[in-house]
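Morning, I've got a small favour to ask if you have a moment. It would help a lot if you went through both lines with me. Thanks so much in advance, here it is.

***
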Amino acid sequence: MTEKKVGFGEYLVGLGILTTDQLKKATQDQKRGERLEQALVRLNLMKEELALQHLADYFNLPYVDLDTYLIDEKVVQLIPEETARRHMAVPLFRIGNTLTVALTNPLNLLAVDEVRSKTGADVDIALSTERKIQRAIDQHYGVTAATFETTWSMGQTEWPLPGTSRLSEDVCTPHSEDFCRPCRRCSGCPAF
């Protein structure tokens, strides 16, 4: 007889990470569209990094600490910035025809399908935190004004943000192909 796989919450209870009361509270307080690990973090029952590490273990996927991971710029160019930002997806490395991408949600099949379609590669998933993925996207694609405001509101007070040198606003229209890689502003922008 095959063993039925328990849900992520029961998995955490089985590990002794959560009590059954904590799991019950998290599932009852879960907002519409919110995943369990997000509710656990929001309710301060788990730190985000620990929640994603356990989620990675649950799905038998690797967890990547993007603060210490060096990403090759050639691999970053495989996924368009708009796709990376929309799906919170960071390309990590490519071996043969397989591209490994960091996501926050291992069940985001839409992201996997779009990355596969855009790159023509098979896609493997690794997990990382939303904050670390956002930071990696900003570092490799540039920081936008909206990202700055979001990051600042999340408690990031260091300026410039790690891995960046300037803030990119939507003031400058992309009339030139001469962009500064860290900030994505054209060289004629008055903010320089």
